[in-house]
Structures are given as structure tokens and as C-alpha cells.
Amino acid sequence: MKKADLSHVKALTIDVFGTCVDWRSCIEKALEEAIDVSPAPDYAALAHKWRQGYKEAMQHYASQEESIDPYPNLDDLHRQLLDNLLDKDPEFSHLSTTVDDSTRIKLTQAWHHLTPWQDTNPGLASLSNELGLVTSTLSNGNMRLLVDMKKFAQLPFDIILSSELFGTFKTNSKVYQGAARLLGLPPHSICMVATHLHDLKAAKANGFITAFIPRPKEDKQVLDDEDFQYVDVVADNFVHLAEIFRK
Fold first, then answer.
1. Is the pTM of this model over 0.90?
2. Of 28, 200, 207, 245, whose CB has the highest number of CB atoms within 10 Å?
3. Contacts for 36 with CB less than 8 Å, ≥ 6 apart
4. What confidence tens digit (pLDDT) does each residue in 142-183 have?
5. Which of 199, 206, 210 is CA-nearest to residue 241?
6. Are residues 140 and 235 in the same domain?
């Protein structure tokens, strides 16, 4: 892997779900606390299917060339996906009458209150405060969700950017181009940080520098040679990423 020139990077756009916060453990815990039945369902499988439905919806919306109108509210989408699982999925439909409306609302709101990985906040603080880089979210989460999560998890971002601002979702090019425009920087001066390779591939195609942080059960833990066509930096975590930029 050729060492990337990071000297011209002025800002970081950073994915949130999985990259900054451990959504999987948090949602599994929320499901376990909210659906206290015997025999217990497979909470990990339920969380995974819920997230998988979200990912499939994002891929569908991102593939549309025109701006999405009306733009889907992520809370509504999460609720719809949860209802589909609890009411129609053969593995979980036996829970349909057990999980009432108020519980489903509470579970949907759990996506606003996810805890960060241990390295996230100190690493982000170093990147911003010590190294002077602008740190911004670039997430498919809507603005209100990201603000709630920033406050709950005390994420030290300088800026909140959401795909909602651009009328589509990652990995549509409009998101990356729009982020560069709002940051007032050329794409080659921005580093996209994510644990999802499809996000980095799209960012690279739009001229960004890219940094990969592996997280448990999110994407590959070890990259193949072909991945380095669109991955410029590999960091163990955000603290390590700050060390790389410091050198």
C-alpha cells in the first residue's frame, strides 16, 4: 500500500452508524429490554434484519438520479421496517401482538441514542482540536437524529452534515459533491472516513481521500489488494487515525 499524501487534507467527512457508534450492541440491548418474552427471540438476528432492511432501502434510494420527493423520514422508515419484521417475517411474526405501538415507538427512537466506540471521542477530539482538521458527519441519518446522537454520545464533531441536505442518500454522488460544496473545499482536500467500503468507493470516485476503519461485524477486517484502489489510509481506530495525520 502506497503511503497517501495527507498534507493537503483540511477536513474529514465521517460516517456515523458503525464507524463512530456501536449500533449493533445498542439495538440488540434495546430489543432485549423492550421485548421481554419467553422463549426469547434471537435479538441479534432481529437487529441484523432491521439494519439490513435499512441498507437495502438506502441502496434503492441512492440509485435514483433525481432528488427524492417526498424525502423519507428515517424514523418513519425504521418504524416501517420494524413493523414488517414483527408483523410479517416468519421468524418474528409471533411477536406481533406482544410488541405494542408505544414499544415500537420507543424502539424506533433507540436509533437516536447510540453509544460511541471507546476510541471515537478522544480520536475525533485530537483530529479537530490538536490537528486543526474540520470534522463533520456525513451520514444517511437525518439531521434531527444526528443532532440527538451527537448530544447523547457527546460526539465532538465540528459540523453535522446529513444526506438529507442533498435530497438523496449515500452512495449517490450528490451527497459527496454537496458536502464538498458546503465545506467550501475541493474534494481532494477532504478525507472520507468509514468502516463501509461501498461508502469509500463512492467517495473516491468523487475525488475524496479515503480512510478505512475496521469495526466488528461491519465490513472486511482485512482488505484485499483490489480494495486499495479506493482506500488510501487504513487506521485501527480514530486515535490511530489521528496518529497517522500527525506524522
1. yes
2. 200
3. none
4. 999 999 999 999 999 999 999 999 999 999 999 999 999 999
5. 210
6. yes
Residue 224 within any structural domain of the chain: yes
| Residue 99: pLDDT over 80 | yes
pLDDT one-digit tens code per residue, 28-56: 999 999 999 999 999 999 999 999 998 88
> What letter represents residue 75's amino acid?
D
Q: Does 242 share its domain with 126?
A: yes
User: Domain limits at 66?
Assistant: 23-111
Residues 6+ apart with CB under 8 A from 239: 119, 122, 123, 126
- Among candidate residues 111, 130, 165, the one where a domain is terminated: 111
CA–CA gap between residue 29 and residue 131 (Å, rounded)? 36
